[in-house]
Amino acid sequence: MSRLVVVSNRVPDPAKGPPAGGLAVALNSALEKMGGVWMGWTGKSSGVKEPGPLQFVERGNITFALTDLSRRDLAEYYTGFANSVLWPLCHYRLDLTEYARKDMAGYFRVNRLFAERLRPLIQPDDIIWIHDYHLIPMASELRRLGVGNRIGFFMHIPWPSPDVFFTLPVHEAIIDNLTAYDLLGFQTEHDVENFALALKRDGIGRDMGDGWMAAYGRRFQAKAFPIGIDVAEFASTAKEAVRSKAVKRTAVSFAGRDLIIGVDRLDYSKGLTHRIDGFERFLIANPAWRGRTTLLQVTPKSRSEVQGYSDMQRQVAEHAGRVNGAMGTLDWTPIRYINQSVGRNTLAGLYRIARVGLVTPLRDGMNLVAKEFVAAQNPADPGVLVLSRFAGAARELDAAVLVNPYDVEAIGNAIARALSMPLEARVERYTAMMARIEQNDISKWSADFLGMLQPEEQRTTEPVPA
Ligand code: GDG
Question: Where does the signal peptide begin and end (predicted)?
Answer without folding.
Answer: none
